[in-house]
Queue: 2 jobs
Job 1
Amino acid sequence: GAVVSQHPSWVICKSGTSVKIECRSLDFQATTMFWYRQFPKQSLMLMATSNEGSKATYEQGVEKDKFLINHASLTLSTLTVTSAHPEDSSFYICSARDRGRGSTGELFFGEGSRLTVL
Amino acid sequence: AQSVTQLDSQVPVFEEAPVELRCNYSSSVSVYLFWYVQYPNQGLQLLLKYLSGSTLVESINGFEAEFNKSQTSFHLRKPSVHISDTAEYFCAVSEPGGGNKLTFGTGTQLKVEL
């Protein structure tokens, strides 16, 4: 149980285009999902907190108009990188909190999505 | 504010040798502590966690970590490593009631060699 799936796992796009990454909780309901960005050989940087049915909360320095987050249902959150540029190339990872497990602090992570912008 | 320090960026070790990956944290309140493992081009998998109770926690694949409040540490240990343990290990902390917001350390690359 507690599986989180991301799609696509790999994506290559041209500069200036937009890319959407999906994060789904397959067997639980997630009121809260988190989006991270990971640079090579570095730690995860929290980008934003996505709450079902409300606006995402972005961390300082993250452009909300650049990284659009939608959490329309209890099992799906999407991250759209708009007008992507090569510097947006990175590994994007989502995680989700199982609302049925209370506030244990545990999060379940997706497999990650590697974005390469040419 | 919380922070997590993993002093060792890389730890090379021979197969069947013991290993310790260090993690120290700072927080003004009580914390939950986690170790996650990341294999190449994959997301993170929970290895073990400390929420409350016994300060020694164990994973199903032989890792253990001990919460030491006085030293604000949560070091990860394994008495005998295997090649398949080669991966990146992240220590993380969150605050009870903090909305599951995790703060990660910079990670330690464990490389097990024959």
Note: Residues 25 and 113 of chain A are 15 Å apart (CA to CA).
Job 2
Amino acid sequence: AQKITQTQPGMFVQEKEAVTLDCTYDTSDQSYGLFWYKQPSSGEMIFLIYQGSYDEQNATEGRYSLNFQKARKSANLVISASQLGDSAMYFCATRETSGSRLTFGEGTQLTVNP
Amino acid sequence: NAGVTQTPKFQVLKTGQSMTLQCAQDMNHNSMYWYRQDPGMGLRLIYYSASEGTTDKGEVPNGYNVSRLNKREFSLRLESAAPSQTSVYFCASSVTTSGTGIHYEQYFGPGTRLTVT
């Protein structure tokens, strides 16, 4: 069974600074994918970034990058140059090739201060 | 494209009542999913449909049934609502599932906020 752990219930960052949101995972599969989603206060789930377990380079999408350390089973999200609109709940999730479901962590509430 | 749509947006039920949550997607996706989100617990998979004509249980299927009506529509039914089913329900879809489709992200609907009294 897969398990995702997000150890930071809440994080605070100053506008324009970078922030790292932690995510560790536990899976027995050799091939798997890691996803990050953003949920603003309006409630919708927005896909941010994907990392495959066999990808040699860390994924990047604009201001989002993924610090993927396979041996440590961690997939931390780095947001550079934080903006007020980044204030939201952030979820890490994993999917194994043997199954179709996404397994989500409990989320980290990020607050960006002006 | 509307993406993934869900109806209703809000619903209040009394214990024992039944209702169906509707979900439709216009992205020609093969796979569809139902999740529930409770405070402090992230999203948990209730049921999913890997392709038209198939459905499978997820992590928390008890008290729910689903129907994959066609490729576009996937409904979730509560036969006898209980207060423990008070939650926000999300429908999602993706191009495909498992195997080589692992990298395909899931697209989520706006959610249905359900309260059972």
Note: Chain B is about 0% helix and 50% strand.
